[in-house]
Amino acid sequence: MHMLSLEKQVVELEELPTQVVREDGRLALRAAGAEDRRLSRALGAFFGMRAALGDAAEIQREPPPAVFRERESQLLRVVHKEIVLHFEEGVSSAAQKKILKSHDLEAVAQSEFTPQQFVVRCKQGKRHGAALVPLANELTELAEIVFATPNFVSEYRRDLHKEQWHLKNTARHIGQKKGEDVQAEAAWKITQGKSTIVVAVLDDGVDLSHPSLKKNIRKKPNSSDAKDKFGRDFFLPNTHPEHYDPSPKLFQFPYDQMAGNDIHGTPCAGVIAASGATSGVVGIAPKCKVLAVKIFHADSLAADERVADAIRYAARYADVVSCSWSGGASPNVELALRDAALTGRGGKGTAVFVAAGNGSGSPVGFPARSQFAIAVSASTDQGILANYSNVGPQIWVAAPSSGGVRGVYTTDVSLPNRGFNTGNAAAGGVDGLHTNDFGGTSSATPLAAGVAALMLSANGKLTVEQIKTILKDTSDRIGADHHPQTGHSPRFGYGRVNAKAAVAKAKTL
Amino acid sequence: MEKGCIEKPPPGEISMLEQLKPSPHQVVIRLGSSRAVAAAKLALAAVGQVSPLPGHPNCLVLSTTRKASAKPFLRVLRTMLGDKAQVMPVMLDQDEQPHYALGGITIRFKAPPKAKELAELKAKFGLRLQERNEFVPEQASFTLAEPSPYLPDLLKQLGNRKELEAAWPETVSAYHRT
């Protein structure tokens, strides 16, 4: 099926099988291959279908809206009973009525701003849903009509923030290389993530009230623990009054330095799942959720036992775990990684992504070097290895980060005068909500973890081994040192993560 | 199996675990009160350099040129500080990163431990159950008897017991946000 644009160009539409169902006392719209909460809400929000008329028989009588996916953009378009029709200037009212009558149409509204434009519908609702598309095309071909189009309720995609080169590198800055990114936009044509897929961020806390994160914070992860509303702070004992608050807590002057400040976890969370509510800054999986798990109070020594238990907690309540840190080797932490890999997600395994470390070519740190972790190195916006990145046989994949022309633009602690950017336009904006200079393997790791979240959104049945295999098979072999047989490179692992290819492959399994 | 793929180790196989070894020149001393800490600082000044363990006000770290991991040296320190002081070597991982023992140990059993096994550990090694792990029924933490045994010996003895998968000291260490 197709519709005609203003220039009479063909716009291909793929109709998706659609169903109206009752859900929690409301009517919800379901379309195959478009599991989107906004879509299910469209019935009540736009088409006036309420649960009050929702017994089974009435649902049958009321024609369902038709749902299309526009082939080129992959955006969803939904139409129910109306067409928008714009007459040429000078077409008289009588001529307009004649045209409407000849097509059994009646005007239901006139544009407030353009008197020649009307919303029309077929009398007695004879033609509706998908049938309105050819009817609109037929009207568009008339000399008296500028355009006629189904009155779509549509999905809109906000443009990426222009500085988020790690998602789409357009070589905006001198020295950057176009396409040296993670191929996010192409992946999003398949999925932008599902709210049921959760990525745990184990770090120094996540700003739960950040305007671009709060919507995507996993709430009540453990339904049997009423105190567990937003995650936990494992640095503090379970009995501590602030144990159930995983927010950043420790700040000391100078507030824009990592030393002494809990400002590291919030940018990591943004790389995964910033919603785009502020400045259009989005994470790689903007519809997935983040589980905040605090394990550090800035640089204080941390109990290995508590770090290990935080991993176990995360593996129980999240699908993917992101660890942008390294530490001393601990048998307990390694056993916790094993527990996650073998028992997480009901035995399918929870994928734990761990930063390789920033030792400038040093061996891969712990716990990234564990066989139960997925070690991530960092590439730059020029498509080369970041010079700070650690290297070694344990590297599984690389992901874009700082070290080239620009750092990574992501969320920052929103408290006034706290965070990497304390309110400086040159550091990411005067509102202080973002930083434009996040980086290290700390930024590469949540990016790779977020890609895994997209993969699981496309196919929730994947095991952790399958996730690793897909990443191995689909990552871009940047660099010249990949082994000719195994494809492995000690610098990039099996290559730089390609979200589009990984998600597409995940969907086929 | 390809390197990096996940395979469940066979029962009893713990070779994957990162090993900790005692530091030759550093010990952690845990004391019962701030008064004891002040007295220990004075007493130990002649033995080596004494520094606080950040975040743990009742613990001191002693750095010395003597062989601190040797049992006789630890015995001397305990005599000096009294039986209430726990004296434990700082543990080092393969990257020589220090892990500061806090006086407890964690044991991973092959199956969730029964009361009989716990009683046996108490009788034989003086280990008192502190708490079972919140997430893993096979794991539990224990406090040590007083006077505390030589930690490396205790861990070695526990490692030889067939019902246990692994045992390690409870430690704090430095983590680096990358």
Task: Report on this structure.
The complex is a heterodimer of chains A (509) and B (178). Chain A has 509 residues and is of the alpha/beta class. Chain A is built from 11 helices and 22 strands. The model of chain A has no long low-confidence stretch (mean pLDDT 91). Chain A has a 7-stranded parallel sheet with strand order 13-14-12-16-18-19-20, sandwiched between helices. In chain A, a hairpin with a 5-residue loop joins strand 1 (2-4) and strand 2. Chain B has 178 residues and is α+β, with helices and mostly antiparallel strands. In chain B, strands 1, 2, 3, 4, 5, 6, 7 and 8 form an 8-stranded antiparallel sheet that branches. Mean pLDDT of chain B is 87; it is low at 1-16. Chain B is 24% helix and 37% strand. Classes of the chains: A alpha/beta (509), B alpha+beta (178). Chains A and B meet through strand 15, helix 7, strand 17, helix 8 and helix 9 of A and strand 5, strand 8 and strand 9 of B.
